């Protein structure tokens, strides 16, 4: 009995010593991290928090300080990781919810940003009131296309776009566009409507659905084309994964397309970003595999630049969640594009796109080049 009492006493004393050591470690981590936070020593705070968390000193205040430090260093993805860890312990933490919305917004992930607003008591983020029903974005773009072949005249394309927030988990994108091109003795005209719904049932997961209608007229004939689109997107701190498919009739032929895409921010911000996509395209009795790769980076305080390469035959090829459908009678076999962006103010962005295409003339099967210039403006509300 005496031995048992001695053993019990030893265990209790050990547990008490361990508790005192843990409390001391917690007080030290809390004190040091708070001092570095108050002195705006952001890099020092991030390094210290990483070491403290690895040693088992993990508590919400430390995560919140480390997340804010990451954000002040412009590493929004790293901040998202920390704020998401806080939500696992307290899913109504107002500070974490606020900055999760702000960091996603800084990564141009509007739907993800809106999702975290729904549980905010004060629905103002970054000085902007985030209403549950609102117009959030308007855009307009116009382009001139210049084919290097005498049997094709210059073409023009104009599009107006509007985005609405419908609650904090659902958004609606809509576009109206017009395309026109001169041919010997005739003119090709096309009017289009596009609508896309994006719904987030839970954080990080989006359900996508879209409809694209095209009304084309060429050589006294008119065709009605419609394409339906659906997909899933999983967002994580440093990017997103998406799988989607579309089906419909384009230029009288049944068309199907399956896509798998990965977008990423290696530095945790828009200082460097990219996207890779592989597509399986079936149009009539033709089946093609198409590879797309884009890379972009920040070039100045208010400027960005990105480039895009698309390789593969593209009859009826769709991009940007079926927003753009390339249903020209001349099939594109290669696309190379460069786009520059200038932030006029926090709400208005101007962009200029230069596009080179290699195309195959459908009558004589001649390969020719086409150059395009597109200018656009987007307003964010």
UniProtKB/TrEMBL annotation:
Keywords: Signal. The keyword Signal applies. InterPro entries: TPR-like_helical_dom_sf (IPR011990). This is DUF560 domain-containing protein. It comes from the Bacteria. Residues 1-21 form the signal peptide.
